[in-house]
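not sure who needs this but someone in the group chat was asking about Vacuolar protein sorting-associated protein 74 from Cladonia borealis so here u go. i didnt clean anything up, its just raw.
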Amino acid sequence: MASTGGVVRRRGPGAGTSSTSPPEDENDASRVSSPVPKNYDKAPETSYTGGENGHKIAFDPRDMQESEERNKQPKLTLMEEVLLLGLKDKQGYLSFWNDNISYALRGCIVIELAFRGRVSMQKDSSRRRFPLADRVIEVIDDSLTGEVLLDEALKMMKSSEKMSVSSWIDLMSGETWNLMKIGYQLKQVRERLAKGLVDKGILRTEKRNFLLFDMATHPVADGGAKDEIRRRVRNVLTNRTVVLPPSQFLPEDMEFRYIRTIAMVCAAYAANVLENALATLGHEARERAFAQVDELLAEYSQWPFGKRAGGSQGIGANLGQVITEEINKSKDKELQLEVVAACLSVFTRLDSLL
């Protein structure tokens, strides 16, 4: 039946060409209706914003999203903090005898992705039958973080089959006999992290001669960053009441400030670089600090986290309370924290894996 309405707005390419188009017959087979636009996934179009003198400035909305992401995150990632602790300040290189740091850095990548809300433990009630490190993780947000190593790992996790925490750390470290999966190895992680710290103004690049060859080294250019990390480590491992002052490396409004710091301390311990932050302590104080790390690993390598009433020396007596408060503020992110606990459980058996 023909429509008896007056003005009909056409859809499609012809829209707006005529304000008095004749009515369309719904049953007229000779007419071909304009196709309905399909919602294809396309890259965001260039947007414009008003600048000075009235000129328009073009920008990519993805760049704006990346800037917002960076503003919500600390200046340094967990991997960069651990690497920075291991570097010799003036020489600019790691100890040649450190075999653990490469593996620990891959674990830090998984932890950082969990803190940033990109991966979480697969939501499956049957997962509790398996040890933490053997539970499967999945990508819940594949948006880029702006950190090259994190984005590379995220793309691999998104495009591959779902695997466990320990499997991913093994594969990214190259610890596999399966030739089909050797491509998952992240290469030159330490060098790439060091170059990232150079870009952030924390390190500088020099060339040093080692007998038969020249090697690029990265001495510390901004000692404030490393000093802040050392203070934070000593704060957690030596004080009865732990209070973390806000800084550009640990903003006050950042999520999971205390859990992130504990993860950094445990990762540095697994990477055999923690002693560099405790060099100014006496022998007995260092021994107590290492004993405290053992307790932190035991408590936070399980999920839910262990109930803490203060360490054997009364160190960090308030940690249990502040971490409970952090978890209660983000109840919807418990599966992400479960990934953190799983990585710490891998760190507890690092010596046997290498």
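also The first strand starts at residue 47 and ends at 50. if thats useful
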